[in-house]
């Protein structure tokens, strides 16, 4: 029972010590409060799952910073895949024949040029 209480104190201490720093780093990378909260949670899960013994507080802090940055980069990479919706999948009726012709021409472009048109 004492060991459980000690672990709870340890978890609380770590969360209080690093949560603000993790949130600031994550928000700097992601620019979304909700995404930063997700990163914060993921970092703590990774921290406690891998439960490393660190030489000192500086090594612990450096490890947490690196995990935070890597998690943010993973999310940014995955967002490009998730948030990209090809024009072919967007369902919008095209009533004007000229608009239909323009869309057809854009769809015939090579992918790298289509992406530029999507962004425009």
TrEMBL record:
Keyword terms of this UniProt record: Sigma factor, Transcription, Transcription regulation
A Pfam family it matches: Sigma70_r2
Example GO molecular function: sigma factor activity
Xref: Gene3D superfamilies: 1.10.1740.10
Domain of life: Bacteria
GO biological process assignments: DNA-templated transcription initiation
Domain RNA polymerase sigma-70 region: 14-78
Entry-linked PANTHER family: RNA POLYMERASE ECF-TYPE SIGMA FACTO, RNA POLYMERASE SIGMA FACTOR
Name by which UniProt lists this protein: RNA polymerase
